[in-house]
Amino acid sequence: MKKTTVLVVLFIFPLVAYLFFASGVNNFGRLPILTEKVNDLPQSPDSVKLDGQITILGFLGNKIEQRKGNVFNLNQKIYKRFNGFKDLQFVMVAPEGSEENVQALKKELGSFTDTQNWKFVYSTPSEIKELFESLQTNLNLDDSLFTPYVFIIDKERNLRGRNDDEDEGVKYGFNTSSVADLNNKMEDDVKIILAEYRLALKKNNADSSQ
């Protein structure tokens, strides 16, 4: 009896768990589209665009020094976990004139992180507001053009999120002031959208080889 119990724990339970989670990815592995076709980014010297990329989009505002904690939280909990995945970029939008402060922030990040996939885009206040409003969320930018929330944008420029969140109902973004929100919700949702595109790529490759 004891040997049977050990075998179940070591072999059968992990197999059942794997099949359960594998079926979950296949059946429930799409992150809902909350807003279609948000605005693309303002023109930048580095030609950073939303089209064709999975983007974590944030709005830094012009008080960069006060927002370092938010960026560092996102960096530690999400960026380091997923940096290196193809077609995934982290984009922070900041007002024109904040370039020097942003570069100082990026340099500080670079002391403990590979910042290759951190992208910073500068624009006018009106363009920043237009971009944010195109997300069509229930959130707001503050007077400095900052929000602690970041957003998942897919390759077709659709805002992805949750339409049945247990706490918020419709969850448009993830609060970088809350480590719990990043750990418990955003990490899961980023996994889902990456898996969605990987599965689509595998299917396309399989179809093209037939």
UniProtKB/TrEMBL annotation:
<protein>
    <submittedName>
        <fullName>Membrane protein</fullName>
    </submittedName>
</protein>
